[in-house]
Specification:
The structure holds 2 protein chains of 2 kinds. Chain A is mainly alpha-helical. Chain A contains 16 helices and 4 strands. In chain A, the strands form 2 sheets. A two-stranded parallel sheet of chain A has the order 1-4. In chain A, strands 2-3 form a two-stranded antiparallel ribbon. The longest helix of chain A is centred in the middle third of the chain and has 27 residues. The radius of gyration of chain A is 24 Å and the shape is globular. The two termini of chain A are 27 Å apart. Chain B is an alpha/beta fold. Chain B has one domain: P-loop containing nucleotide triphosphate hydrolases (Rossmann fold, 3-Layer(aba) Sandwich), CATH 3.40.50.300. Chain B is 37% helix and 24% strand. Chain B contains 10 helices and 10 strands. A 6-stranded mixed sheet of chain B has the order 6-7-8-3-9-10, sandwiched between helices. Chain B has a 4-stranded antiparallel sheet with strand order 2-1-4-5, with helices on one face. In chain B, helix 3 crosses helix 5 and helix 3 runs parallel beside helix 6. Classes of the chains: A mainly alpha, B alpha/beta.
């Protein structure tokens, strides 16, 4: 295959491409909350929570090849950890993030033990059961002292509210407010006397603030996934996916690796749950759609169309999913459907969003069976091919112990 | 002291006795050929040593240590590596990554250090260079960044050897490395086996049907039939052994 330009990994040209891409990305991420419309911010937050969950799922499903249709439960665990801690015990929402990670990690490790013994469609069914039973469990009477039953828990109450559901809530805010609250005013967040986020928080519903929280979660999860994938552990995950027996012979402890990756994935998946809980302003089994099994299926779809087993796949897939469903969701009237596809979808009284997405999904799976990331990997070398840095010292293989002891990394740039 | 002692190993699958009180030992630095007609139990023996099967009874000792108490993922660390008869590579990974996984037992980075990148980059560079050198050593350097999927069979067989060597083993088990290779490739393989034995100070257990190769490079040959050992000795002795001739050609 011929390519237009061929560059070496780590060369000046390669770094130039990387820097330009990074600058563009940062520019877009800054543009959305400062100049974008309120609905764009809301949609972006939605996309970012979805991509967080999809990235977490990708570790287990895309890299390790363990099917899970129960990750919605882990998101739910995150949401409820935040809900319970803030609402019942008056913790700051910040504290709930690491706690949610810990709780979901523990549950994930527990789930992984049966998962280590079963494979394929059976594992899919077991995790599906988890996804189905979780929202049910929340409504069980025995747990209602903790979960608030079917009506759930509020995270914030209006100061005037005197309803019973709000009785236990100590704070009248979301707990994110910094400094003393001022009545009837949006709180400002000043750094060195400058209201740095003032412009970002011009929206009454604090959307821009949630945007930054959701983005932080995305960045944390991306960095964690990248760290794992580009290491000895990540290679062992793909080895398990490709050939379990061979992986074990190479020294991969299958049970422990699967337990850790399931736990890590579950813990990371809980983080977007915390974001959803505080953004929604409360948790309830019906209030948060993505903690039902429908959520797990959405994570799966977003991950697959983006590209399973690739770092950027879930990010691209979730963005596409959320923006397409958002756009088509507004086509409730026949007149709003673009003329080209109106004859196809104009027959329904409700928005044809699901139908359009289903069709798009089928087409995508034909055109790009390995997702958008797979398509990129296949066709981007036609334009720019990046030659990997040559591997090896050019000599005969030295014992690894000696190599790592005498290794001097003069190419210490961060990967 | 011998490197590997197989002592009275019996494996039963339901009513079938795959190995019936098999005993033999391998000396350090030897290439030991394990031969026998189809169904003699060679691969079963192989899977017992590489801890995929748990024998019904018996003991297998490696440098005096009981192997049957070691989990399957623990043998690489002891210095035992194997290749597979029908290829058990990681098809979606590049050749380089395949070999890097082979070095898994040599690495230290776990989940915690991977997430927080403590020393992960350094280990990656070291492992990557080591794997690259091994690929070049086995003449696979050109394909280092190609996925294993879709390369010719003979190339992949060599990749299996490279991946096994990445564990820095002292004992290499090879399950029918010559199967599916052309005549020229078999000769090349025989040379490779002797070469890596000398270069990496290996002891090799070779399960093979290709008689001329086994007899040509083995220091010692163990012949099996119906799960039992029928002959044990130098290639010459085994070739003249009547029980072996009977097993292969049928007794008159």
């Amino acid at each position: 295959m011929k390519s237009l330009v061929t560059i070496r990994e780590g060369s000046a040209a390669h770094w130039a491409i990387r820097i330009v891409t990074a600058v563009l990305l940062v520019a877009i991420l800054l543009w959305v909350p400062t100049k974008g419309s309120a609905s764009l911010i809301t949609t972006s937050i939605e996309a970012m929570t979805l991509m967080s969950a999809a990235m977490a799922l990708n570790l287990v499903l895309g890299y390790t090849g363990q099917i899970s249709i129960g990750h919605s439960a882990f998101l739910g665990i995150g949401a409820y950890t935040t809900g319970i801690m803030v609402s019942r015990w008056g913790f700051s929402p910040w504290v709930t993030f690491p706690v949610a990670f810990g709780v979901a990690f523990f549950v994930g490790v527990l789930v992984s033990f049966p998962a280590a013994r079963i494979k394929g469609v059976y594992l899919a069914l077991v995790t599906l059961a988890l996804g189905l039973v979780f929202p049910q469990m929340l409504t069980w009477k025995r747990f209602s002292w903790l979960t608030g039953g079917g009506s759930g828990l509020p995270l914030s109450c209006p100061a005037t509210s005197a309803t019973r559901t709000c009785a236990g809530v100590a704070k009248t805010t979301t707990g994110f407010d910094i400094g003393p609250a001022q009545k009837g005013q949006l709180q400002t967040f000043k750094i060195f006397g400058h209201d740095f986020f003032g412009d970002l928080r011009r929206l009454d519903n604090k959307s821009a603030f949630w945007y930054w929280i959701a983005l932080s979660v995305v960045v944390v999860i991306y960095l964690a996934c990248r760290g794992v994938v580009k290491s000895r552990v990540g290679r062992s995950l793909i080895a398990i996916r490709d050939n379990e027996t061979a992986a074990a012979v190479m020294g991969v402890n299958l049970v422990r690796t699967k337990a850790f990756v399931f736990g890590l994935s579950a813990g990371l998946c809980a983080l977007p749950g915390c974001v959803v809980a505080i953004k929604t302003g409360g948790v309830s089994p019906e209030g948060i759609l993505s903690l039902t099994v429908l959520g797990a299926i959405t994570f799966l779809i977003a991950m697959v169309i983006g590209g399973a087993g690739s770092l950027w796949g879930p990010i691209l897939g979730s963005t596409l999913y959320v923006f397409v469903t958002d756009k088509t969701g507004s086509w409730a009237d026949d007149d709003k459907i673009p003329g080209l596809i109106r004859p196809l979808f104009g027959w329904s009284k409700i928005s044809p969003a699901d139908g359009i997405f289903a069709l798009l999904l089928i087409i995508l799976m034909f055109v790009a069976p390995r997702g958008i990331a797979g398509l990129w990997k296949q066709y981007s070398p036609l334009v720019v091919r990046v030659l990997p840095r040559p591997a090896g010292t050019g000599g005969t293989p030295e014992p690894l112990a000696t190599v790592s002891a005498t290794e001097t990394t003069n190419e210490g740039e961060p990967q | 002291m011998s490197l590997l002692d197989v002592d009275d190993v019996t494996v039963r699958f339901g009513g079938i006795v795959a190995l019936d009180g098999l005993s033999f030992s391998i000396e350090e630095g030897h290439i030991c050929g394990l031969i026998g007609p189809n169904g003699a139990g060679k691969t079963t023996m192989f899977n017992v040593v590489s801890r995929i099967y748990q024998p019904t009874s018996g003991s297998v000792r490696f440098r005096g240590k009981e192997l049957l108490e070691v989990p399957a993922h623990g043998i690489a660390k002891l210095g035992i590596a194997r290749t597979f008869q029908n290829l058990a590579l990681f098809p979606t990974m590049s050749l380089l990554d395949n070999v890097m996984v082979g070095a898994h037992s040599q690495g230290k980075i776990g989940f915690g250090r991977a997430v927080f990148r403590v020393g992960a980059h350094k280990e990656n560079v070291a492992t990557r260079n080591f794997a690259g050198d091994l690929l070049h050593e086995l003449g696979l350097g050109t394909w280092a960044f190609r996925p294993a999927m879709g390369l010719p069979f003979g190339t992949l067989k060599r990749l299996e050897i490279a991946r096994a060597l990445a564990a820095r083993p002292s004992f290499l088990l090879m399950d029918e490395p010559a199967s599916g290779l052309t005549h020229g490739e078999v000769d090349e393989l025989a040379e490779t086996i002797v070469k890596i034995r000398d270069q990496f100070d290996l002891t090799v257990l070779l399960v093979e049907h290709h008689m001329s190769m086994v007899m040509g490079i083995s220091d010692r040959v163990v012949a099996m039939e119906f799960g039992r050992k029928i002959a044990d000795g130098t290639p010459d002795e085994v070739q003249r052994d009547e029980a072996v001739i009977a097993a292969y050609l049928g007794s008159s």
